[in-house]
Amino acid sequence: MHIEREQADGAVLLKVAGRLDTPNAKPFETSLMDVLSMTDGPIIINLAGVDYVSSSGLRALLVAGKAMRNSKRRLSLTSLQPQIREVFDISGFSTLFEIS
Amino acid sequence: MTMPPAADTLISALRVGADIASIAQVTSWLGDLADEHDWPPAMRFGLELSVEEALTNVISYGFAQSPREPLIRVEVHGLEGGRIAVHLIDNGVAFDPTTLAEPEAVDSIEDARIGGHGVQLMRHFLESLTYRREGDENHLTLVAAPARAAG
Protein backbone atom coordinates (compact mmCIF):
# COMPACT_ATOMS: atom_id res chain seq x y z
CA MET A 1 0.00 0.00 0.00
CA HIS A 2 1.34 3.38 -1.02
CA ILE A 3 0.00 6.93 -0.57
CA GLU A 4 1.09 10.02 -2.52
CA ARG A 5 0.01 13.43 -1.28
CA GLU A 6 -0.55 16.47 -3.51
CA GLN A 7 -2.31 19.83 -3.36
CA ALA A 8 -5.10 20.30 -5.90
CA ASP A 9 -7.35 23.39 -6.11
CA GLY A 10 -7.31 24.07 -2.38
CA ALA A 11 -7.81 20.43 -1.47
CA VAL A 12 -5.45 17.74 -0.34
CA LEU A 13 -5.31 14.96 -2.92
CA LEU A 14 -4.26 11.52 -1.71
CA LYS A 15 -3.45 8.97 -4.38
CA VAL A 16 -3.67 5.52 -2.85
CA ALA A 17 -2.30 2.39 -4.51
CA GLY A 18 -2.18 -1.26 -3.52
CA ARG A 19 -4.31 -3.42 -1.26
CA LEU A 20 -6.55 -2.06 1.50
CA ASP A 21 -6.60 -5.37 3.36
CA THR A 22 -6.37 -6.34 7.02
CA PRO A 23 -2.54 -6.17 7.23
CA ASN A 24 -2.53 -2.70 5.58
CA ALA A 25 -5.65 -1.27 7.22
CA LYS A 26 -4.08 0.09 10.40
CA PRO A 27 -1.14 1.80 8.64
CA PHE A 28 -3.66 3.22 6.13
CA GLU A 29 -5.90 4.56 8.90
CA THR A 30 -2.90 6.07 10.71
CA SER A 31 -1.72 7.77 7.50
CA LEU A 32 -5.19 9.19 6.85
CA MET A 33 -5.56 10.48 10.40
CA ASP A 34 -2.08 12.05 10.23
CA VAL A 35 -3.07 13.93 7.05
CA LEU A 36 -6.36 15.00 8.68
CA SER A 37 -4.59 16.42 11.70
CA MET A 38 -1.91 18.21 9.67
CA THR A 39 -4.18 19.88 7.10
CA ASP A 40 -7.31 22.00 6.75
CA GLY A 41 -10.01 21.96 4.13
CA PRO A 42 -11.27 19.23 1.86
CA ILE A 43 -9.57 15.93 1.17
CA ILE A 44 -9.92 13.90 -2.02
CA ILE A 45 -8.86 10.26 -1.98
CA ASN A 46 -8.10 8.85 -5.42
CA LEU A 47 -8.49 5.06 -5.32
CA ALA A 48 -7.55 4.35 -8.96
CA GLY A 49 -4.53 2.34 -7.85
CA VAL A 50 -6.44 0.25 -5.29
CA ASP A 51 -7.33 -3.18 -6.65
CA TYR A 52 -8.52 -4.82 -3.43
CA VAL A 53 -10.45 -3.67 -0.38
CA SER A 54 -11.78 -5.74 2.50
CA SER A 55 -13.94 -4.72 5.45
CA SER A 56 -10.78 -3.71 7.32
CA GLY A 57 -9.98 -1.17 4.59
CA LEU A 58 -13.58 0.07 4.65
CA ARG A 59 -13.31 0.50 8.39
CA ALA A 60 -10.23 2.75 7.99
CA LEU A 61 -12.10 4.93 5.48
CA LEU A 62 -15.13 5.11 7.79
CA VAL A 63 -13.00 6.23 10.73
CA ALA A 64 -11.51 8.99 8.56
CA GLY A 65 -14.94 9.85 7.15
CA LYS A 66 -16.43 10.26 10.62
CA ALA A 67 -13.51 12.45 11.74
CA MET A 68 -13.89 14.66 8.65
CA ARG A 69 -17.64 14.99 9.24
CA ASN A 70 -17.08 15.90 12.89
CA SER A 71 -14.76 18.70 11.83
CA LYS A 72 -17.19 19.77 9.07
CA ARG A 73 -14.70 19.08 6.31
CA ARG A 74 -15.43 17.54 2.95
CA LEU A 75 -14.08 14.11 2.07
CA SER A 76 -14.60 12.64 -1.38
CA LEU A 77 -13.46 9.47 -3.10
CA THR A 78 -12.66 9.19 -6.80
CA SER A 79 -11.78 6.66 -9.49
CA LEU A 80 -12.94 3.41 -7.86
CA GLN A 81 -12.20 0.28 -9.88
CA PRO A 82 -15.36 -1.79 -10.63
CA GLN A 83 -14.69 -4.50 -8.02
CA ILE A 84 -13.97 -1.84 -5.39
CA ARG A 85 -17.21 -0.08 -6.31
CA GLU A 86 -19.04 -3.40 -5.87
CA VAL A 87 -17.65 -3.75 -2.33
CA PHE A 88 -18.81 -0.18 -1.58
CA ASP A 89 -22.27 -0.91 -2.99
CA ILE A 90 -22.74 -4.16 -1.03
CA SER A 91 -21.60 -2.64 2.25
CA GLY A 92 -23.71 0.50 1.82
CA PHE A 93 -20.63 2.72 1.72
CA SER A 94 -21.63 4.15 -1.67
CA THR A 95 -24.37 6.13 0.05
CA LEU A 96 -22.17 7.24 2.95
CA PHE A 97 -19.36 8.78 0.90
CA GLU A 98 -19.26 11.37 -1.86
CA ILE A 99 -17.93 9.34 -4.80
CA SER A 100 -17.04 10.60 -8.26
CA MET B 1 -27.73 -20.51 2.30
CA THR B 2 -27.75 -23.99 0.80
CA MET B 3 -25.33 -26.72 1.81
CA PRO B 4 -22.39 -27.03 -0.56
CA PRO B 5 -21.91 -30.36 -2.32
CA ALA B 6 -19.19 -32.65 -1.01
CA ALA B 7 -15.75 -31.54 -2.05
CA ASP B 8 -14.14 -33.84 -4.58
CA THR B 9 -10.53 -32.85 -5.25
CA LEU B 10 -8.07 -31.44 -2.77
CA ILE B 11 -6.03 -28.88 -4.69
CA SER B 12 -3.80 -27.60 -1.91
CA ALA B 13 -3.60 -27.09 1.86
CA LEU B 14 -1.76 -24.71 4.12
CA ARG B 15 -1.24 -24.46 7.87
CA VAL B 16 -0.75 -20.97 9.32
CA GLY B 17 -0.35 -19.26 12.67
CA ALA B 18 -2.90 -17.05 14.42
CA ASP B 19 -1.28 -13.73 13.58
CA ILE B 20 -2.01 -10.95 11.14
CA ALA B 21 0.90 -11.95 8.87
CA SER B 22 -0.98 -15.18 8.14
CA ILE B 23 -3.62 -13.21 6.23
CA ALA B 24 -1.11 -12.00 3.64
CA GLN B 25 0.37 -15.51 3.52
CA VAL B 26 -3.02 -17.08 2.78
CA THR B 27 -4.21 -14.49 0.25
CA SER B 28 -0.88 -14.70 -1.59
CA TRP B 29 -1.16 -18.51 -1.66
CA LEU B 30 -4.73 -18.24 -3.00
CA GLY B 31 -3.51 -15.80 -5.66
CA ASP B 32 -0.88 -18.30 -6.78
CA LEU B 33 -3.53 -21.05 -6.98
CA ALA B 34 -5.81 -18.71 -8.94
CA ASP B 35 -3.02 -18.08 -11.46
CA GLU B 36 -2.13 -21.75 -11.66
CA HIS B 37 -5.71 -22.93 -12.16
CA ASP B 38 -6.91 -19.92 -14.17
CA TRP B 39 -9.79 -18.95 -11.88
CA PRO B 40 -12.00 -16.16 -13.32
CA PRO B 41 -10.86 -12.78 -11.91
CA ALA B 42 -14.18 -11.98 -10.23
CA MET B 43 -14.35 -15.41 -8.53
CA ARG B 44 -10.77 -14.99 -7.38
CA PHE B 45 -11.53 -11.53 -5.97
CA GLY B 46 -14.64 -12.70 -4.12
CA LEU B 47 -12.99 -15.81 -2.74
CA GLU B 48 -9.86 -14.01 -1.62
CA LEU B 49 -11.94 -11.31 0.06
CA SER B 50 -14.22 -13.85 1.77
CA VAL B 51 -11.32 -15.96 3.03
CA GLU B 52 -9.63 -12.84 4.39
CA GLU B 53 -12.81 -11.84 6.22
CA ALA B 54 -13.23 -15.30 7.75
CA LEU B 55 -9.57 -15.62 8.69
CA THR B 56 -9.52 -12.13 10.23
CA ASN B 57 -12.37 -13.20 12.52
CA VAL B 58 -10.55 -16.38 13.55
CA ILE B 59 -7.27 -14.58 14.24
CA SER B 60 -8.88 -11.61 16.00
CA TYR B 61 -11.30 -13.48 18.25
CA GLY B 62 -10.69 -17.22 18.11
CA PHE B 63 -7.75 -17.49 20.44
CA ALA B 64 -7.99 -14.45 22.75
CA GLN B 65 -9.52 -16.58 25.51
CA SER B 66 -8.21 -19.95 24.44
CA PRO B 67 -5.34 -21.66 26.26
CA ARG B 68 -4.69 -23.92 23.26
CA GLU B 69 -1.83 -23.67 20.83
CA PRO B 70 -3.51 -22.15 17.75
CA LEU B 71 -3.90 -24.49 14.79
CA ILE B 72 -5.35 -23.04 11.59
CA ARG B 73 -5.56 -25.11 8.42
CA VAL B 74 -6.84 -23.90 5.06
CA GLU B 75 -7.77 -26.38 2.33
CA VAL B 76 -8.75 -25.58 -1.25
CA HIS B 77 -10.94 -28.13 -3.04
CA GLY B 78 -12.11 -28.19 -6.64
CA LEU B 79 -15.82 -28.91 -7.12
CA GLU B 80 -17.95 -29.63 -10.17
CA GLY B 81 -18.53 -26.78 -12.60
CA GLY B 82 -15.30 -24.97 -11.79
CA ARG B 83 -16.53 -24.08 -8.31
CA ILE B 84 -14.00 -23.80 -5.50
CA ALA B 85 -14.50 -24.73 -1.84
CA VAL B 86 -12.20 -23.36 0.84
CA HIS B 87 -12.30 -25.14 4.19
CA LEU B 88 -11.07 -23.07 7.10
CA ILE B 89 -10.43 -25.23 10.15
CA ASP B 90 -9.26 -23.87 13.51
CA ASN B 91 -9.15 -24.98 17.13
CA GLY B 92 -10.20 -21.62 18.59
CA VAL B 93 -13.32 -20.90 20.61
CA ALA B 94 -16.60 -21.89 18.96
CA PHE B 95 -17.61 -19.15 16.54
CA ASP B 96 -20.27 -19.37 13.84
CA PRO B 97 -20.04 -16.37 11.48
CA THR B 98 -23.10 -17.55 9.53
CA THR B 99 -25.31 -16.41 12.42
CA LEU B 100 -23.95 -12.85 12.53
CA ALA B 101 -26.41 -10.07 11.81
CA GLU B 102 -25.53 -7.63 9.09
CA PRO B 103 -25.20 -3.94 9.93
CA GLU B 104 -28.37 -1.91 9.48
CA ALA B 105 -28.45 0.23 6.35
CA VAL B 106 -27.98 3.89 7.27
CA ASP B 107 -28.04 7.09 5.25
CA SER B 108 -25.36 9.11 6.98
CA ILE B 109 -21.79 8.60 7.96
CA GLU B 110 -22.60 9.77 11.51
CA ASP B 111 -24.95 6.82 11.98
CA ALA B 112 -22.73 4.22 10.33
CA ARG B 113 -21.51 1.47 12.62
CA ILE B 114 -17.81 0.69 12.48
CA GLY B 115 -17.38 -3.03 11.77
CA GLY B 116 -19.67 -5.90 10.86
CA HIS B 117 -19.35 -5.61 7.09
CA GLY B 118 -17.26 -8.73 6.61
CA VAL B 119 -20.13 -11.20 6.81
CA GLN B 120 -22.20 -9.02 4.48
CA LEU B 121 -19.43 -9.21 1.86
CA MET B 122 -19.01 -12.97 2.31
CA ARG B 123 -22.74 -13.57 1.76
CA HIS B 124 -22.61 -11.51 -1.41
CA PHE B 125 -19.52 -12.99 -2.99
CA LEU B 126 -20.01 -16.64 -2.05
CA GLU B 127 -22.41 -19.26 -3.34
CA SER B 128 -22.57 -20.73 0.14
CA LEU B 129 -21.08 -20.29 3.59
CA THR B 130 -21.56 -23.15 6.04
CA TYR B 131 -20.33 -23.81 9.56
CA ARG B 132 -20.08 -26.78 11.85
CA ARG B 133 -18.38 -27.40 15.17
CA GLU B 134 -16.56 -30.71 15.20
CA GLY B 135 -14.98 -31.67 18.53
CA ASP B 136 -12.72 -28.76 19.47
CA GLU B 137 -12.63 -27.36 15.95
CA ASN B 138 -14.52 -24.80 13.90
CA HIS B 139 -15.08 -25.91 10.31
CA LEU B 140 -16.12 -23.13 7.94
CA THR B 141 -16.70 -23.90 4.26
CA LEU B 142 -16.72 -21.12 1.69
CA VAL B 143 -17.85 -21.97 -1.85
CA ALA B 144 -17.40 -19.62 -4.79
CA ALA B 145 -18.73 -20.20 -8.29
CA PRO B 146 -17.58 -18.91 -11.66
CA ALA B 147 -21.23 -18.35 -12.63
CA ARG B 148 -21.58 -15.78 -9.88
CA ALA B 149 -18.42 -14.17 -11.22
CA ALA B 150 -19.85 -14.02 -14.72
CA GLY B 151 -23.06 -12.43 -13.42
What can you tell me about this protein's structure?
The complex is a heterodimer of chains A (about 100) and B (about 150). In chain A, about 45% of the residues lie in helices and about 35% in strands. Chain A has one domain (about 1-100): STAS domain (Transcription Regulator spoIIAA, 2-Layer Sandwich). In chain A, strands 1-2-3-4-5 form a five-stranded mixed sheet. Chain A is an alpha/beta fold and about 100 residues long. Chain B is of the alpha+beta class and about 150 residues long. Chain B has a single domain (about 10-145), classed as Histidine kinase-like ATPase, C-terminal domain (Heat Shock Protein 90). Chain B has helices at about 20-35, 40-60, 115-125, 145-150, and strands spanning about 10-15, 70-80, 85-90, 130-135, 135-145. A five-stranded antiparallel sheet of chain B has the order 1-2-3-5-4. In chain B, helix 1 (about 20-35) runs antiparallel to helix 2 (about 40-60) and helix 2 (about 40-60) runs antiparallel to helix 3. The longest helix of chain B is centred in the middle third of the chain and has 21 residues, at about 40-60. Chain B is globular. Classes of the chains: A alpha/beta (about 100), B alpha+beta (about 150). The interface between A and B is medium-sized, with 22 and 28 residues.
- The residue-averaged pLDDT of chain B reads 91
The poorly predicted ranges of chain A are: none
Strand content of chain A: 25-35%
Question: How are the strands of the largest sheet of chain A arranged?
Answer: 1-2-3-4-5
